[in-house]
């Protein structure tokens, strides 16, 4: 009777399922990271029945409830708004300024911002509102 040596058991690690799992996790995180809300400027827009959507490629001036001014999400003061706005106007082709103001701000501040936008040679001023239907829901 011949002795056969110990049989060697082949231990191979099949990484194909591991690659599938990692790939699925990668897809999951790529898709879900798109829906994470970015921190922004908190503004309660006034509502209007005739509100329309505009592309957000224009210059946006935001006025918060505490009268802080933001030019394209960058904090500015009323004193340096004109010079910052002129720099932004030189950068774009369409000279459209969208003003997103909280519904509780002083009207005088909104008029000053609109006047500064006109001084910076804005061709159009748009007051941003939200659609009346959005308020009811």
Oligomerization category of the chains in this entry? single chain
Mean pLDDT: 78
Count of alpha/pi helices: 4
CATH class of the domain at 47-136: Alpha Beta
Content of β-strand = 15-25%
CATH topology of the domain at 47-136: Nucleotidyltransferase, domain 5
Q: How helical, in percent, are the residues?
A: 25-40%
Main sheet makeup: 5 strands, mixed
Q: How many strand units?
A: 7
| Class from helix and strand fractions | alpha/beta
What CATH architecture of the domain at 47-136 do you see?
A: 2-Layer Sandwich
Topology pattern, helix = H, strand = E: HEEEEHEHEEH
Distance between the termini: 88 Å
| Overall geometric form | elongated
CA gyration radius, whole angstroms: 28 Å
Low-confidence stretches: none
Could you please describe the fold and organization of this structure?
The protein is an alpha/beta fold. The chain has a domain at 47-136: 2-Layer Sandwich (Nucleotidyltransferase, domain 5). The chain has 4 helices and 7 strands; from the N terminus they run αββββαβαββα. The strands form 2 sheets. Strands 4-3-2-5-6 form a 5-stranded mixed β-sheet, covered by helices on one side. A two-stranded parallel sheet has the order 1-7. Strand 5 (96-101), helix 3 (107-119) and strand 6 form a beta-alpha-beta unit. The protein is elongated, with a radius of gyration of 28 Å.
Which terms would index this structure?
alpha/beta, 137 residues, elongated, Nucleotidyltransferase, domain 5, 34% helix, 7 strands, two-stranded parallel sheet, five-stranded mixed sheet, 18% strand
